[in-house]
Amino acid sequence: MNARSDQIQRYCADGDQTAFRLFYRAEAPKLWKFLVTRGCDRDAAYDLLAESFLRFTQTVCRDPRAPVALLYRIAINLRIDAHRRETVAATDAVENLDELPVAAPAESDDHAHVRALVKTLPESEQNLLLLRYWIGLSHKEVAQVLGSPEGTVRRQCAEALEKLRERWGSEVIHAAG
Amino acid sequence: MRPGEKHIEEAIAAAFERLPDPDPTRLKSLEERLSRAAFRARRRERPRWTYWWLILGLAATGAAAWWAGEYFTGEPFDNDVVPHTPSAPAFESGGESRDDDVHEPAGGIEDRAPNAESAAGTGQSPTIYRRERY
């Protein structure tokens, strides 16, 4: 994350376009995947990605300390706006996640199983877990993204993980039975 | 058996990392557009500072011009003026004045003025000021 912050600080201080491009190349694919998991159509995800980065360039230099958190905050807000406009249930789109082709043909069942388990959680908890454990944001950054106190984010993360553990264990028991 | 938290954390990261990647050509075309937009955004940020520097420069120029005007065209300082010494405080009680502290000659101003003129007229005193004759 520090490398990302350095790149954006170079962009803001010196107008370094190369630093901005490096930041984009590192974050754009992951943000696109995140938007798709949040229920975006694949084409709409490109549009939201472009809009997110565009707004990001207009605002990041006011406070370039946590650029990744800012980018995801913008993206999530845009996604919510788009969702309201389209009046399409996010859960429907999330259910389409497993219809997407996987990156590698030999994907283990564990991955699909974990995604299915995560999908059973409320969307706010899904966001928490994905931002924290997939995107790799710190608790403080996740709190910035979601606009919640850091302590609340820590507690909610622990609760969401505990739910997943319980469901994981119960499914294994059901499968064995 | 319930997995540990660490295992779940790693499983989440791995599961979502395995999702299909976006089309690189579309990402590349977006990158070009965003780079131009980012460049324009940075250029828009600069004028704010430019305006402040311009205002500061104008203020500095004005201050320098004012100072220079005072320096070159203003009245020169008269260093020969004898500094004013405060007079002795008046005594509030008794209404008496201390004549001992007043270093005036015995005669008043009225007495001295004619003497000074007469001395200048007779050439006994140096000419301090003479009116120009055209």
Task: Describe the 3D structure.
The complex is a heterodimer of chains A (177) and B (134). Chain A has 2 domains: 1-100, Rna Polymerase Sigma Factor, Chain: A; 108-177, Winged helix-like DNA-binding domain superfamily/Winged helix DNA-binding domain (Arc Repressor Mutant, subunit A, Orthogonal Bundle). In chain A, 77% of the residues lie in helices and 0% in strands. Chain A has helices spanning 2-14, 17-37, 42-59, 67-86, 90-95, 109-119, 123-134, 139-146, 150-176. Chain B is built from 3 helices and no strands. Chain B is 57% helix and 0% strand. Chain B has a domain at 5-72. Chain B has 134 residues and is mainly α. The interface between A and B is large, with 50 and 31 residues.
Ordered list of secondary-structure elements with their pairings:
The complex is a heterodimer of chains A (177) and B (134).
Chain A: H1 2-14, H2 17-37, H3 42-59, H4 67-86, H5 90-95, H6 109-119, H7 123-134, H8 139-146, H9 150-176
Chain B: H1 5-17, H2 24-73, H3 109-121
What is the terminal-to-terminal distance of chain B? 122 Å
Could you estimate the helical fraction of the residues of chain A in percent? Answer: over 70%
Mean pLDDT of chain A: 82
CATH topology of the largest domain in chain A: Rna Polymerase Sigma Factor, Chain: A
Number of contiguous helices of chain A: 9
The structural domain count of chain A equals 2
Task: Sum up the structure in keywords.
heterodimer, A: 177 residues, mainly alpha, Rna Polymerase Sigma Factor, Chain: A, Arc Repressor Mutant, subunit A, 2 domains, 9 helices, B: 134 residues, 57% helix, 0% strand, elongated
